[in-house]
Amino acid sequence: MEMKTRVAWATAVLALALPTAAAAVKVGEPLYVKAKNTRVLASPSGSANAVAVLQPGERITWGGADAKHKQWHKVTTSTGKKGFVFQTNLSTTPPNMELVTGSGGTQQVDPKKFVASGAAVKALSPGAEQYGKDKGGDHGEAVDDIKALEALAKSVSTADIAAHVTAAGLFPVVGASDTVAKAGTNKRSGKR
Q1: pLDDT tens digits, residue range 8-46?
Q2: Where are the transmembrane segments (predicted)?
Q3: What phi and psi values does residue 24 have, to the nearest 5 degrees?
Q4: Contact between 36 and 120 (Cβ < 8 Å)
């Protein structure tokens, strides 16, 4: 047997032997959401309508990979909504509970509450801020810029985003009930 053929056979055998995340579970078994604001889409396409938005740790039921688009996986949410999620947003294990320490000792933090608190997406920790200030030069200015952006981001509400999406004629990310109705905008003018 030629060397090229042996390498091809060995590669094929190894590929079949290596487990994937999808192979680790069977259809109907649970998987867990890994990423914040994971969209469950109506079809296996990034531009499809979202039927639900999930947070880290949420449990879904796996329905298998899409036949044509293997990176998209069929799922059913805990509320019964069905759709597709991109494979990198799913895990076979629930997320680890975060451990934090403080004056009261060590405690566990629920991943959903941790994400909702904004701590998971905060750009700079107090230690990083101090490091940037101590480093001097452009580093201190960069710290100030990042802190200003964080403050600006906190001032923008979901209603503000929904109103902008409507006024700009953009595709709604979640759905009509979560965009126009909650934003309190006039559908024709985009004004409040």
Answers
A1: 554 444 444 333 444 568 999 999 998 888 999 999 998
A2: none
A3: -75, -15
A4: yes
